[in-house]
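Components:
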Amino acid sequence: MRKIFQLYFAFFLLFNCGELIPNPDDNAQNIKREEPKIERTNDFAIVIHGGAGTIKKENMSAEKEAEYKAKLEEAIRVGHAILKNGGSSLDAVEKTINIMEDSPLFNAGKGAVFTNAGTNELDASIMDGKTLNSGASAGTKTVKNPINLARRIMDDSPHVMMAGDGADSYAKEQGLEIVSPEYFFTEGRLKSLERAKDREKVEMDHDDNQKAAFYDADIKDSKYGTVGCVALDKSGNLAAGTSTGGMTNKRFGRVGDTPIIGAGTYANNATCAVSGTGWGEYFIRGTVAYDISAMMEYKGSTLEEASVEVIQKKLTNLGGTGGIIAVDKNGNMMMEFNTAGMYRATMDDKGELNIEIYSKKQ
Amino acid sequence: MRKIFQLYFAFFLLFNCGELIPNPDDNAQNIKREEPKIERTNDFAIVIHGGAGTIKKENMSAEKEAEYKAKLEEAIRVGHAILKNGGSSLDAVEKTINIMEDSPLFNAGKGAVFTNAGTNELDASIMDGKTLNSGASAGTKTVKNPINLARRIMDDSPHVMMAGDGADSYAKEQGLEIVSPEYFFTEGRLKSLERAKDREKVEMDHDDNQKAAFYDADIKDSKYGTVGCVALDKSGNLAAGTSTGGMTNKRFGRVGDTPIIGAGTYANNATCAVSGTGWGEYFIRGTVAYDISAMMEYKGSTLEEASVEVIQKKLTNLGGTGGIIAVDKNGNMMMEFNTAGMYRATMDDKGELNIEIYSKKQ
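Structure:
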């Protein structure tokens, strides 16, 4: 009999069920154990990105680097102040993105890249983690701040997504700030388009107009350019937003992942808020933003585990490049990417600011 | 010492780790146990839908019912023959959807509903479960069969999604069949638009142009109308496709769930293929099609469990209505919806055909 007990005991240890053994004292006295309280890492928190791509230290001047960092800081401080004062994560996301949209440094709003037709067509989306309500616009040409249009579509229309001229009309009807298409023209982006077209001519016999992006880091970055923000507010509400000027030299009304809820943007109070930046086609195929949330909800992954798995394994195996920023319901923050760099910053409830550009592997 | 063993043994049983105990004989002889073989329910299978909505038996004439059933049968038999002959699930999905697109009975292709501007703007998407490649088009006005354009975008372009005039241009450049916008005009759909507009005038003081859809079952159905197909082929490859004429009286370039990968369409050989039909805004917010796949992948749910959970709980709690058709990698088929009816059919590898229209609760 003792031998059998020893055998079971051995298997017991083998299967490592050790943590299931209750304290005999607790058991004897029938003391009800309290559920372990999950401590929020941060009461509120905000993370932003300004695009991921071939951002290499060797190609960046000290002035340019300082300029990017200053703008990232300006943007994140706007959202942080809103959160600190008890404002909503949605407001923090919208106002923070506005700063980046208004800066020609990033491929969103002013500074948007040019399409093949020499126009600027902008996309944006926003999602409310409390209600799962969301708004998205694709291919607008006259809306100064596309993230505001996305917010308006979410709040005041029965729809989630509007595209093209119709979206511009709605913005006008709603009294959002309308600008002439020239507002978006910037010298730098026009040169990128010219270079992309020149490259295309050279590459014509390869019949692959995408290749230009792979030879010219600047074009490649333009292709990837996006701005985004995720935030957790003091009420525990999560929000995510993303805004972009799309892809240099794009044709045929191509739509990337930015205005696609679940691909480029996702927020759910039960899990996390995510904004992506990268090669949009792969983010759509991988349903990247929602995938991180689903892995947390269904598999019990932490935000870090889910972000690393989705970006470093699933997206990478698919052949996709880019990154995400995310914050979970407990205020844990993540910035995960598989490119050389990603313009990014975090700011927690203690006001600790962290701004980075390059991959730590560089 | 023996007492301690007894204590551990008691806890061991208490925590029901019984199933972890290996058979001592197996252990002694080091016999490797075989993994249980998962039998495929069907070697190949196909499921279609022609839209979900307020489809009530009391409002349907015997002729109309026969007409719908005949067209559903014609469509599914096309795809079934392809699968039976060893063809790909992608071909089966595309050709089956073509039959429904070409029929004025369904809100896709010919028979598409009218926008507020009196135009027909069509959406479609397709996904390959083997590669996770996908294609989608939104708001085209001249492409006879939008599902063919979605397939071409997937197969021959570097993009996943194209919208508006750009998508029409790509279709023309690629030599797909182009028709004049009048091709899509049908008397019945024009009347639906007129009724929706009349209702809108009446409802004007409520400032909610969506209400028309809730009072007029015919308009409501037009709103929901979509066609879709999912298939598993003999090689084990899954595919899903969806095509729609959108929403009656739609404005502002509204985009629904049909061209959104993850919302209206999803396929992954590791899990399942799904096509949705319903109130698109809710399908986007719920990332419905991918959610079913994610629940299977991360939670180990069966296709049935995941479909019921997503449609009857998650979508319903969100306030959304509609349904999905799905097939998993083992050939299990599902048709789940929370509306009065859904035009639908299944056909398995034995050639057993099942066509239904109404909910079993009617």
